[in-house]
Design goal:
By secondary structure, the chain is α+β, with helices and mostly antiparallel strands. Helix content is 38%, strand content 20%. The strands form two sheets. Strands 4-5-10-9-13-8-7 form a seven-stranded mixed beta barrel. It has a three-stranded antiparallel β-sheet with strand order 1-3-2. About 5% of the residues have low confidence.
Length: 335
C-alpha cells in the first residue's frame, strides 16, 4: 500500500493536546476539514502562510514552535517515520513506476497538467502516482498508457527498460532528496535566532519570508518593544522576503493623528533614517536586545538641531526623544 510521504514534520498535535483542544475544535476555528487537520498533524499536508499564522493564533504559539527542532525529543520519531514511509514506497516498486512515468512524460514534452487531463485523472492523483505515493488501479492503466500512445504492456516494458538502463536513478534520487530535505537540520537565516537547527528549515524559511514579526505595541504614552516572533502578520507584497523588516503598532495619539489608528508601521532594521523621515526610536541597542528583553520605543519624526545632532520629535504633547537606535519607517498599512 502506498504511503503518503511526510513533507511537513510539525509540533501542531503536541501543542494542541497541551492546550486541551480537540482536533474537531481546531478544524472548526481554522476553517479546515477534520481530514485536512489530521493530515497536517501527520505531516503529509502543508499549510500556506496564512493558515500557519492562523493556527499559531488559535493555539497561542510562535511560528517557530510549530517546527521540529534538531534537539526536540520527537525529532527521532519523525525521522524514523519519514524513512519508513520512503522505504515502503521504494520496496513496493511505486517509486520506479512513478519515476518512469515522469521520464516518459518529460520525453513527450507534456506538462503534468496535460498528462493528467489526457489520462482522465485529477492533477493531484497524477502527481501522487509520479512521486510514488499512490497505487495504480487496473482500470487506470489503459487510459494512462493510451495517453502516451502505448499499450499497457508497452508502458510497463518502457519503464522496465528505463530502470535497467539506470536512467531512473536520477529521478528517484530527486524525489528522495526532496522528501529527505525535511530531515536536514539547519539554522534558517530568518533574522530570529532559533537556538539550534530545525527539521524542515527550508519550509520554515519559506513561511517566514512572507510574515513579519510585530515587535512593538502601544503601552500608555510609549510603545513596549520586544524583539520576538511571538506575534506575526502577513507581510505586504513589496516587503516579502526582505530581511530586517518588523512591524510596530503605533500610538497614534502621540503622532498628532499623522498615523491613523488600526495601522501597522513597518520599519527596516538595516536602514538608518534621514532628517525628515519617520523612524522607530528605541531606547536601547537593537542588535544587543535579547529576544525576551523588553525595551521602550516611540515612532518619531527625525529632526536635527543647530549643532547637527539628530533626535526624534513626537507630538501630543511635544517631546524631544533621544534614543539609542533609530530605524527608518518604510511603510504604513491600515489593519
Amino acid at each position: 500500500m502506498a504511503q503518503e510521504e511526510i513533507i511537513f514534520p510539525n509540533n501542531i498535535r503536541n501543542i494542541r493536546m497541551a492546550t486541551g483542544m480537540k482536533m474537531t475544535e481546531l478544524a472548526r476555528q481554522s476553517h479546515l476539514s477534520l481530514s485536512a487537520v489530521s493530515k497536517i498533524e501527520k505531516g503529509v499536508r502543508r499549510l500556506n502562510q496564512k493558515q500557519l499564522l492562523n493556527i499559531c493564533n488559535i493555539l497561542g504559539c510562535k511560528l517557530s514552535d510549530i517546527f521540529i527542532k534538531e534537539d526536540d525529543a520527537v525529532a527521532d520519531q519523525w525521522q524514523s517515520e519519514i524513512k519508513r514511509r520512503l522505504n515502503d514506497n521504494e520496496d513496493s516498486g511505486l517509486k520506479i513506476f512513478g519515476s518512469g512515468l515522469r521520464k516518459i512524460r518529460q520525453q513527450t514534452g507534456k506538462t503534468i497538467a496535460q498528462a493528467a487531463a489526457d489520462a482522465g485523472m485529477t492533477l493531484s492523483v497524477y502527481h501522487k502516482i509520479e512521486v510514488g505515493q499512490r497505487e495504480i488501479y487496473q482500470n487506470e492503466i489503459e487510459p494512462l498508457a493510451k495517453s502516451f500512445a502505448m499499450s499497457a504492456e508497452k508502458l510497463f516494458d518502457k519503464i522496465a527498460n528505463l530502470y535497467k538502463s539506470g536512467e531512473l536513478n536520477k529521478q528517484i534520487s530527486k524525489v528522495k532528496e526532496r522528501v529527505k530535505s525535511v530531515l536536514i537540520p539547519d539554522n534558517p537565516a530568518s533574522g530570529i535566532d532559533m537556538h539550534g537547527g530545525l527539521y524542515g528549515a527550508k519550509l520554515y524559511d519559506s513561511a517566514r519570508k512572507k510574515l513579519v514579526p510585530v515587535f512593538g505595541v502601544p503601552d500608555g504614552k510609549s510603545i513596549t518593544f520586544k524583539k520576538s516572533d511571538e506575534t506575526m502578520i502577513v507581510a505586504p507584497m513589496p516587503l516579502e522576503g526582505r530581511s530586517g523588516i518588523y512591524a510596530v503598532i503605533p500610538n497614534s495619539k502621540r503622532l498628532g493623528g499623522f498615523v491613523p489608528e488600526h495601522a501597522y508601521v513597518f520599519a527596516d532594521a538595516t536602514t538608518a533614517p534621514a532628517v525628515g523621515d519617520l523612524a522607530v526610536c528605541i531606547d536601547t541597542d537593537f542588535d544587543k536586545l535579547e529576544p525576551d528583553a523588553v525595551a521602550t520605543a516611540q515612532i518619531v519624526s527625525v529632526r536635527q538641531d543647530s549643532k547637527g545632532k539628530v533626535y526624534g520629535q513626537i507630538a501630543s504633547p511635544e517631546e524631544k526623544i533621544i534614543g539609542h537606535t533609530m530605524h527608518k519607517v518604510i511603510m504604513i498599512v491600515m489593519e
